[in-house]
Amino acid sequence: MNTSADLLKELRIDRKPAPAEPRSRKPLWITLGVIVALLVLAVLGWLLFGRDKGIEVRTAPTVALSNGSASAAVLDASGYVVARRMATVSAKITGKVKEVLIEEGMQVEEGQVMATLDPVDANATRDLSLAQLAAARSQSGSLQAQLQEAEANVNRLTKLAREQLVSKAQYDQAVAQRDTLRAQLVTAQRNTQVASDQLRISDNGVDNTIVRAPFAGVVIAKAAQPGEIVSPLSAGGGFTRTGIGTIVDMDSLEVEVEVGEAFIGRVQPKMPIEATLNAYPDWKIPGEVIAIIPAADRSKATVKVRVALNSKDPRIVPDMGVRVSFLEKAKPASAEQPKGVRAPGAAIVERDGADVAFVVDGEDRVEQRALTLAGKLGDDQHVSAGLSAGESVVLDPPAGLKDGDKVRLVEESTDAE
């Protein structure tokens, strides 16, 4: 019986709740990490996609006008920088180059030695002329001594002939000998002068082996090397140089432009101009018209105009491309201050039939302004109303840009690339 009771106890269901196991904290940390990651992704997504970055634009400031800058351009033309004084320097004689003393970019003064030729032949010719001069002088001296003796003999025989102590034939012979020596002395003296002149010519020949700069300037080309043959005339072959180097007087630089026949009437001598080098588009160089060449090119229907630049700068070099704006006559200093500002032409566009520009405010938003234009100033525009000096205007506004849009300035590094 006891065994059965024990078995029944074992089969009885225990109604007591089982002890709770300790809860793990790992799921909580995972949940917090996921929440933080989602928040970070949300912030990054807003920064990258949700924030209004604005339209990338370039800007430029407007500039107040002065009396001198109020002159409007009446004509634009293109041309090149040229030098009025430029020379390819050569030797006066044909010879072999011994030494070249110039390099490209070197500044030379008037009379400075640029190169020397082999002087062997010239020195030999000079030595021969010097010897001939010495011989002529020696002969002249000998005849001078003989003439003195002959004149003394004639004087002595003259007294004897008066006293009839010598024959008249002997006296006449002495006189003839004296006259002959006189003629020979004159000839010898002339030969001495010829020999002296020949020596001077030989000295010039030696000097011609030295090539000097005809004027002060800058060397822009070196054409010969030691050992080459140079000649002032073209030899027709490929082994003879015709020059040592080319120098340019940088103070003689000016601009030559070709103006169409239909517009040449707008150009007048002494007319002010504004030149812009293709290499430096932001540099405006003032100047004036020197002269209008009185000849036309029938193939291009143009007339050449010479223009002087008022600025001397090492950045201006021959054969540079340049754009010239011919301006109206400058107003006198007493003229009324012009109204308006000077704005870049690229900032002005047409919207709904009106000329407008977009001004960037302090919050990087644009304001569309209606403009009143008073004329061109080269690549810029004279704006008489709608803009103030110092305001930043958008260059080349996109077609979709409108009033109130947010913009972002293009960084300089991006522009440079």
From TrEMBL:
Protein's UniProt keywords contain Acetylation: no
Stretches the record annotates as Disordered: 396-417
Domain (CzcB-like barrel-sandwich hybrid): residue spans on this chain: 85-231
InterPro entries membership: Beta-barrel_RND_2, BSH_CzcB-like, MdtA-like_C, RND_pump_MFP
Record field: transmembrane: 28-49
Listed GO CC annotations: efflux pump complex
Keyword Transferase in annotation: no
CusB-like beta-barrel domain ranges (all copies): 255-327
Composition bias type Basic and acidic residues, residue spans: 402-411
Residue ranges of every copy of the Multidrug resistance protein MdtA-like C-terminal permuted SH3 domain listed in the record: 343-396
Alphabetic keyword roster: Coiled coil, Membrane, Transmembrane, Transmembrane helix
Coiled-coil region list: 133-191
A single MF term (Gene Ontology): efflux transmembrane transporter activity
Family: Belongs to the membrane fusion protein (MFP) (TC 8.A.1) family.
PANTHER family listed in its UniProt record: HLYD FAMILY SECRETION PROTEIN, MULTIDRUG RESISTANCE PROTEIN MDTA
Annotated protein name in UniProt: Acriflavin resistance protein
Organism for this UniProt entry: Pseudoxanthomonas dokdonensis
